[in-house]
Amino acid sequence: MNAAIKSPQTFQDNREKAQIAAWGVDMAPIAASGMSWNNILYISDQSASASNRRAIRVTNGATLPKNGLTFVTDNPLYIQGNWNTGQNPPSNASTPDPGKPMDASYAWRPSAIIADAITLLSNSWQDNKSGSGLGARVASNTTVNAALVAGNVPTGSKGNNYSGGAENFVRFLEDWTGKTFTYYGSMLQLYASVQATGVWSSGNVYAPAQLHWNFDEKFTLTGPPGTAVMISYVQQRWFQE
């Protein structure tokens, strides 16, 4: 596991208007380890504060452990590149097919990501261009297959700010013009973000992607590790005194 944790690397998050120091989590050695565990991974940098912006970044997540993964942090989380797709997801094509969430090329595993906020960095992301203008931060087609649970910055919570709506539940920092973010899963917004509280705006932050979003029907058969499951229920008689 130690080989998977990388020292924090710093990049600019234009939505947060801040330099972010993100611990790296390389999924490749975790997926290849073959270790026996509960497939729930929790990571927290408790030194995070308004003046010490910390986060977690996951990379090389195309292939996950064979029994899946639930990744949890109370920090902001950045997904860099494809997640839970195998090596050749359809979104690598110029025109991905949103009608094939169960494409045969996928090495699918049940997965969930739970964080203070979730930002997608495309397959083309480069830290050294993060502080440059939007024209230098050009995205490429990227796919994520996972349930996502995260916070937002509610509309009106910082004056006249807009939350960004459901289409910005996953946050972006690149120019996605003509590119596609393909998503298979289920999104839940259960709380307000505590650490990643920069308000939604476009400007020099991002240009919107084409969104090919689908509910992942495999969740009806296999939930992510740690998912609460109701097996059965029995209706009983009741009365009110």
Can you characterise this structure?
This protein has one helix at residues 27-32; strands at 5-13, 18-26, 40-42, 54-59, 69-72, 77-80, 111-114, 118-121, 142-152, 171-172, 180-192, 210-215. A hairpin with a 4-residue loop joins strand 1 and strand 2. Helix content is 2%, strand content 31%. It has 241 residues and is mostly beta strands. The strands form two sheets. It has a six-stranded mixed beta sheet with strand order 1-2-4-6-8-10. The model is unreliable at 91-96 (pLDDT under 50). The protein is built from one helix and twelve strands, in the order ββαββββββββββ. It has one domain.
Strand pairing plus helix content: what structural class?
A: mainly beta
> Would you list the SSEs in sequence order as H and E?
EEHEEEEEEEEEE
- Largest sheet descriptor: 6 strands, mixed
State the distance separating the first and last CA atoms. 57 Å
Number of helices: 1
Quick one: how many beta strands?
12
Globally, the shape reads: globular
- What is the radius of gyration? 19 Å
Helix content: under 10%
* Overall domain count: 1
* Sheet with the most strands: spatial strand order: 1-2-4-6-8-10
- Could you tell me the mean pLDDT? 89
**Residues in β-strands, percent:** 25-35%
Give start-end ranges of low-pLDDT stretches. 91-96
Protein traits:
mainly beta, 12 strands, 241 residues, six-stranded parallel β-sheet, six-stranded mixed β-sheet, single chain, globular
